[in-house]
Write a structure and sequence with these properties.
Number of helices: 13
Helix content: 25-40%
Order of helices and strands: HHHHHEHEHEHEEHEHEEEHEEEHEEEHEE
Strand order of the largest sheet: 1-10-11-12-15-9-8-4
Radius of gyration: 27 Å
Largest sheet: 8 strands, mixed
RNA sequence: GGAGAGAUGGCUGAGUGGUCGAAAGCGCUCCCCUGCUAAGGGAGUAAGGGCUAAUACCCCUUCGAGGGUUCGAAUCCCUCUCUCUCCGCCA
C-alpha cells in the first residue's frame, strides 16, 4: 500500500509514477472526490463522538452529585442517531478509499527503466557463456522421459496437467539442490532457516499484496474460513513481521525457507504447457530481508548476489536483468530477475526474481521498527527473492549438463549431496 | 471429539456500568542523591488515526475479534477466534 498521506497530498505525482506501469489506470479525480467526502465526514464524526463523550461525562458527574439528569438526557436525545448516521457514512467512504488503496501498485523506484514489457528489460550483468554442446541439445522433457525419471503422464493421471512425477536420482537431485541452497544461505550468507505453514489465511495474503487483487492466482480450500495454499514462501515468512515492532538492533533480519509453492496459473493457458517450467506445484528456496528504510536498496543488491552464488556454484550461465516499469510486479518498487541459460530452449529463462517492496508490504502488515533516535515506531522495508527456484534449477542442470547419450553429469557442488554420484543415466 | 479455565499496556497483574487508556509491581528512559558498587528519591514511559506547515496543540479510536444493550461498556448480552488444563484419539 502506498502511504495514504502521500497519496492525498501528492496525488498527481503518485498518478504520474503509476502511469509508467503497464495496463494500469488510476482514476485520480474519483479518488480525490471520495477523499474530500472522507475528510468532511471524519471531522464531523469525530466532532460528534467528542460531544457524546463529554456529555456522557457530565451526566455521570451530575448523577453522582444526585442531580436530576433528565434535562441532560433530553439534550443528547438525537445525538446517538446523528452519530450513527455519520459513522455509517464515514465507514462507507473509508472502505471505498481502502479498496482503491489496496488496488494501487507500489510506486516505482526512479532507477526502474521505462518500458512496456519484457523486451524492454535492461540487462545488468552476464555470468558465464551460453553452454556450447557439440550435439543437438535435448530439452529437459526429452531427457527426463528417456531416463525414465520424469513422468508427466503419471502426474496427469493423478492430478491433471501442470504436475510432474520425478523418480530416482532425478528426484534426489532436486532434493540435493534444495540442500545446497539452504546450506549455502545459512552457512555462508548468514540466513536463519525457517519452517513455515504451507496453508495460510487471507490476512497473510493481504499483507504481502496477493489479496485482494490476485485471488485467481491462488488455490483456496473450502473451509468456512478458507485456507490458501502459499504461492511462495514469501507469504508466510514476510508475515513473521506482521504487527511487530522490532528494536533497532534486531534488524536486519535475513530468513531463508524452503517450501513447495502452489499457483493456479489462471490466465497462462498457452504458456509453457509442456514440461516442468510452469507447474501448479513446485519447490523453491526463498530469501527474505527485513531492514530499516534507508538500507533496502543496498539490501536488494546483496540479496540478488546471494541468489547468484547458487548458480555460480552450479556453474550455470545466467544473466541479471532489471525489470522495466511495464513488467515489474504489483508490490515491488524495483526488481531484478535472474535468468538461467537453457540449451533446450536456446534462451535465458527466469529462475529467480528479487524485489524490494520498500514499505509497501510493511504498511499493509504493520511491520515496524523502533527508531532509536526518536523512539517512535516506523515502517520497515521488506525484500524477497528466490534463491532459487528448485524445479527450474533442476531443469537448468539437466539441460546444461547433458551428454550426447542422454545421461546427465552431476555438478560438482551437488555430488556431496548425492552420495558422490557423478552421472545420472538410465 | 468431551469437560473446564482464560484472553487487559514491553512483562506480571488489578479492575463487574461513569471521574479508566486503564491501579500496582517489574522493566526501560531522564534527573537528583550517594567519592566506586549496592541501595535510595523524583519524573516520564502504548499503538493507530484526524486536523495541521508541524515529529506543536487539540480531537478520535483501540482492554482477543465482530455485533448488541445504554446518555455512557475493559466491565452487561450474543456470536466467533485463539490459548491453557484434564480425558480420548493420533504422525
Amino acid at each position: 500500500m502506498i502511504d495514504p498521506k502521500l497519496l492525498r497530498q501528492s496525488t498527481a505525482d503518485v498518478a504520474a509514477n503509476l502511469a509508467r506501469r503497464r495496463g494500469f489506470h488510476f482514476d485520480a479525480d474519483a479518488y480525490l472526490s471520495l477523499e474530500e467526502r472522507r475528510k468532511a465526514l471524519q471531522v464531523e464524526t469525530e466532532q460528534l463522538q467528542s460531544e457524546r463523550n463529554s456529555s456522557a461525562k457530565s451526566i455521570g458527574k451530575a448523577k453522582a452529585a444526585g442531580e436530576d439528569i433528565a434535562p441532560l438526557l433530553a439534550a443528547v436525545n438525537d445525538l446517538g442517531d446523528r452519530l450513527a448516521a455519520s459513522e455509517t457514512a464515514l465507514q462507507d467512504v473509508q472502505s471505498q478509499i481502502r479498496d482503491i488503496e489496496l488496488d494501487l501498485p507500489n510506486l516505482l523506484d526512479d532507477s526502474v527503466p521505462d518500458g512496456q514489457d519484457e523486451s524492454d528489460n535492461a540487462e545488468v550483468r552476464l555470468w558465464g557463456e551460453p553452454t556450447q554442446l557439440d550435439f543437438e541439445p535435448s530439452d529437459h522433457i526429452k531427457l527426463g522421459e528417456e531416463l525414465g525419471m520424469l513422468d508427466f503422464e503419471a502426474a496427469s493421471k493423478i492430478s491433471g496437467s501442470r504436475f510432474t512425477v520425478m523418480s530416482g536420482p532425478l528426484a534426489r537431485m532436486q532434493r540435493a539442490l534444495i540442500q545446497l541452497m539452504l546450506d549455502t544461505h545459512t552457512e555462508e550468507h548468514g540466513y536463519t532457516e525457517q519452517y513455515v505453514p504451507y496453508l495460510v489465511q487471507a490476512d497473510a495474503l493481504f499483507g504481502t499484496g496477493n489479496l485482494p487483487k490476485f485471488e485467481e492466482d491462488l488455490f483456496r480450500t473450502t473451509n468456512e474460513t478458507p485456507y490458501y495454499l502459499i504461492p511462495t514462501a514469501e507469504v508466510p515468512v514476510t508475515n513473521l513481521a506482521r504487527d511487530a515492532i522490532f528494536e533497532a538492533d534486531e534488524l536486519p533480519k535475513h530468513f531463508v525457507a524452503h517450501t513447495p509453492c502452489f499457483r493456479s496459473e489462471a490466465g497462462s493457458y498457452g504458456q509453457d504447457t509442456r514440461g516442468m517450467i510452469r507447474q501448479h506445484q513446485f519447490e523453491k528456496v526463498e530469501l527474505v530481508h527485513f531492514v530499516a528504510a534507508d538500507e533496502s536498496m543496498a539490501a536488494l543488491e546483496t540479496l540478488t548476489g546471494h541468489a547468484e552464488v547458487i548458480l555460480q556454484k552450479l556453474e550455470l550461465p545466467y544473466r541479471v536483468i532489471a525489470l522495466c516499469a511495464g513488467d515489474i510486479g504489483f508490490g515491488s518498487t524495483k526488481t531484478y530477475d535472474i535468468e538461467v541459460w537453457l540449451p533446450g530452449q536456446q534462451k535465458y529463462r527466469e529462475i529467480s526474481s528479487c524485489s524490494n517492496y520498500n514499505d509497501f508490504q510493511a504498511r499493509r502488515m504493520k511491520a515496524r521498527r523502533r527508531n532509536p533516535e526518536t523512539g517512535k515506531p516506523e515502517l520497515i522495508h521488506t525484500l524477497n527473492g528466490s534463491g532459487v527456484a528448485a524445479g527450474r534449477a533442476l531443469i537448468a542442470v539437466m539441460e546444461n549438463y547433458q551428454n550426447a547419450d542422454g545421461s546427465i553429469r552431476v555438478p560438482k557442488a551437488l555430488q556431496p549431496y548425492m552420495g558422490g554420484l557423478k552421472v545420472i543415466s538410465a
